[in-house]
Write a structure and sequence with these properties.
The structure holds two protein chains of two kinds.
Chain A: E1 2-8, E2 11-18, E3 21-24, E4 29-30, E5 36-38, E6 46-50, H1 54-59, E7 69-73, E8 78-79, E9 83-86, E10 94-95, E11 98-104, E12 120-127, E13 130-131, H2 143-146, E14 152-160, E15 171-176, E16 179-185, H3 193-201, E17 211-213, E18 228-233, E19 237-244
Parallel strand pairs in A: 6-17, 8-14, 9-19
Antiparallel strand pairs in A: 1-2, 1-5, 1-14, 2-3, 3-4, 6-7, 10-13, 11-12, 11-17, 12-14, 15-16, 15-18, 18-19
Chain B: E1 2-6, E2 15-20, E3 25-28, E4 31-34, E5 48-52, H1 56-60, E6 79-83, E7 88-90, E8 94-97, E9 104-105, E10 108-114, E11 130-137, H2 151-154, E12 160-168, E13 179-184, E14 187-193, H3 201-209, E15 219-221, E16 230-231, E17 236-241, E18 245-253
Parallel strand pairs in B: 5-15, 7-12, 8-18
Antiparallel strand pairs in B: 1-2, 1-12, 2-3, 3-4, 5-6, 9-16, 10-11, 10-15, 11-12, 13-14, 13-17, 17-18
The chains are: A mainly beta, B mainly beta.
């Protein structure tokens, strides 16, 4: 099953995919353009992985890490499907990152890799934008690069874990204005999903709606105001986002 | 007496009270009680963001290494991190010492509690968005390198005691001139003042909300002073901030941490005062 959270008619609803549109929790059938898409779950603690695909690490001139490079994201940065992401005028290099999002379903502490999948309730797609102009070498990548308002679209759906036969073998693609710019497979992760759950739960407790953004393969290209960026994970979803400029926010 | 808000265990809403920040006592229905005699919960409802290297002495402590690899240059913008929800802890709660470790760094931090949604606020208007201030112990596994995010060092369960209360903004004349002290087993181990902040409260809020919206209930920590003391299993740790209060916790072996255990110092929940 695929579930979403949307705003419709002045309130927030859960919805399921229904004949190309959505069926709300109160039974109403609506079109996908009639709703405001929210993130499919309300994110609690969100982990993101840096350099978790060897080809992307090489692209950024880094050796592949020997321990997961993890950073955290706050709730301010998330937006849903079909929304707008700000590119400040002063910026010279802002790139998308197509990622498989793993959504935790139940408490996990000291979980071994062979038990890791039991703690997952579903999967989604995230676009973990980075603005490289703001990179500094302290707690890198820092929040100014990775936790900006509007800079982490997620959705459209959460797909139930039981409906995903092998999350470690899914094709990832990004299209900018319909042109293919990034392509990879989750099979190429350096630290796979069970390894990440084992690692994180070895030193802290994971809870329902904690989310792990598992990193991105190579193919980072600068984006411009007006670009329509579509990040897609095979069988999970197709997440559409549009880049806007400062003029959207001036008041 | 200062106006403050407390979160009593078993009472859903924050309760407005008068507190004496020097004696660390709270007035409830006419009687004055020590904060440690009440079952207080963490008063935090939002996200806790920390700031690295915001005390002059902390940055100076890195010396010339800021110009060497891997840092290559001194920091330009505030360096931030997140203390996630699993770290939240309360006044009197046990801080777990992870297996295999012998020392934890005690991070005495003034917490700015946000009162209303703050996006792109100016330095001049910044304090309008502040509900009040609290005391935070930003506990870390000691780590020297600050090149990569310190999730494994800062995000352990119970590593963010907050409290004992939130003192109203208007009860604090100047948040940029408050003494900060750490006592371990009643011995003074660190003393500093928020007058040593590189970015004082208003400037920090303006810089951070330039790209990151802070919401009501979020907390922004102003930073940890240099030479943060270390504590070991069995130690009693007290973080005092002038005009705000004293936050007291003990460090226990993580295997000894008992979930839901009553605070031994307490006389029980104060729900009866409000039922």
């Amino acid at each position: 099953m695929k579930t979403a959270r949307v705003a419709y008619g002045g309130s927030i609803h859960e919805a399921i995919e229904w004949e190309g549109g959505l069926k709300l929790d109160d039974g109403r059938i609506v079109g996908e353009k009639e709703v405001t898409w929210l993130t499919p779950v309300e994110p609690r603690t969100v982990f993101a992985l840096g350099l978790n695909y060897a080809d992307h690490a090489a692209e950024l001139a880094f050796d592949a890490p020997t321990e997961p490079l993890v950073f955290l994201k706050g709730p301010n940065t998330f937006i849903g499907h079909q929304a707008y992401t700000l590119r400040p005028a002063e910026v010279t290099y802002m790139h998308y990152e197509c990622e498989l999002a793993v959504i935790i379903g139940e408490t996990a502490r000291n979980v071994k890799r062979e038990d890791a999948y039991k703690h997952i309730k579903g999967y989604s797609v995230a676009n973990d934008y980075a603005i490289r102009d703001y990179l500094e070498n302290y707690y890198r990548p820092n929040l100014r690069v990775k936790n900006r308002d509007t800079c982490t679209p997620m959705g459209p759906w959460m797909v139930d874990a039981k409906d995903v036969a092998d999350p470690m073998n899914l094709k990832l693609t990004t299209h900018v204005n319909s042109k293919l710019v990034q392509e990879g497979t989750t099979a190429d992760m350096i630290f796979d999903i069970p390894a990440l759950i084992e690692y994180l739960s070895s030193f802290m407790t994971l809870s329902e709606n904690d989310i792990i953004l598992t990193g991105t393969p190579k193919g980072s290209v600068d984006t411009a105001v007006g670009d329509v960026v579509v990040t897609e994970v095979e069988g999970i979803g197709r997440l559409v986002n549009t880049i806007v400029g400062d003029e959207f926010f001036l008041n | 007496m200062s106006k403050a808000k407390i979160k009593v265990l078993g009472v859903h809403e924050l309760v407005t009270v008068d507190v004496n920040t020097e004696t660390n006592t709270v007035v409830l229905e006419g009687s004055e009680l020590s904060a440690n005699k009440i079952q207080l919960d963490s008063p935090i409802t939002g996200t806790v963001f920390g700031t690295l290297l915001n005390y002059r002495g902390a940055l100076e402590g890195l010396g010339e290494t800021v110009n060497e690899k891997p840092y290559s240059a001194p920091p330009i913008a505030p360096i931030l991190y997140i203390k996630p929800a699993n770290t939240f802890n309360r006044n009197g709660g046990a801080i777990p010492m992870p297996e295999g470790l012998v020392a934890l760094e005690i991070g005495a931090a003034l917490g700015i509690v946000i009162g209303k949604q703050a996006s792109r606020v100016s330095e001049e208007a910044a304090l309008d968005y502040v509900a009040g201030y609290t005391v935070v112990n930003d506990v870390s596994v000691p780590h020297e390198s600050v090149y990569r995010p310190a999730v494994q060092h800062k995000s352990r369960d119970g590593f963010c005691p907050v409290g004992p209360w939130i003192v109203d903004r208007d009860a604090v004349a100047n948040p940029d001139n408050l003494a900060v002290r750490v006592f371990i087993n009643d011995e003074l181990r660190q003393e500093n003042t928020t007058s040593n902040l590189i970015r004082p409260v208003s400037q920090l809020l303006a810089n951070v909300t330039d790209y990151m919206t802070l919401s009501a209930g979020d907390v922004l920590l102003v930073g940890i002073p240099e030479e943060a003391p270390h504590a070991k299993t069995g130690d009693n740790v007290r973080v005092e901030i002038e005009g705000i209060g004293s936050l007291e916790n003990s460090i226990v072996d993580e295997k000894e941490r008992e979930w839901g255990k009553q605070n031994e110092n307490s006389t029980g929940s104060l729900w009866r005062f409000y039922s």
